[in-house]
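Same chain as my last thread, 237 residues:
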Amino acid sequence: MIRTARFAGWASIASAVVGVVVTPFMASVWESDGVVWSTTEGLVTRVFGPTLESWGALSFGSEGLPYEVYGKFFVFVYLLMLPIVRYVHVLQGTSATGAWERRTWRVLWVSLIVAAVGDAMSYWGVSLPEPGDILWGVGWMVESLTLLVVLVSTTVYGIVSIRIRVIPIWSAVLMTAILPILWFSLAGLTWYLPNGVVVPMSIIWASIGAWVLVTRPATPEATPSQRKSDTDRTGHA
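reply #2:
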């Protein structure tokens, strides 16, 4: 499982990086139409918006093209988050509270996939000539409603993870506190959805991915001989 751990860890970090990098572009494009950069906007837009506007990054090509171009990257925030969500489930799945863990994880896993599909419909479907506007509207609704399920399941999964005590307690606490964290993100950093919700979650999962890369925790299905073999290969005692 060493390769799986590495892939999940690095993918989670890539997810957070994509989200952090693309958010100033997406939020600034959305808020730049006739807007004077002021305290009425989120901190991200106020800080990066004027610079991006001076670079011409908010108004190239036809109308709406910058928003479509930047938006197409965001589905990768979801997709690159999935491996670490799956890997943590494998780590925790055989615990004494495994039934609760499995139920909550399934809801979280499916809702993340559905939200990713909705996001892809919005930003990739909008490029289609005829049904593009319809796909954008439907995709936005699907993603937005599904994110509510993601938030609730993340909170519950954090509570379950605190009881299981397999992943670091601080990461489980962050999941449990996702709602106040998102309030700070939306109110203080960016008013823009879905980024203001999804990017903080990707950062939490990236922190777990970094922990996995550093500690290489043994999965429950690994036999003692497999664990010894992994230890010998990685040079860890």
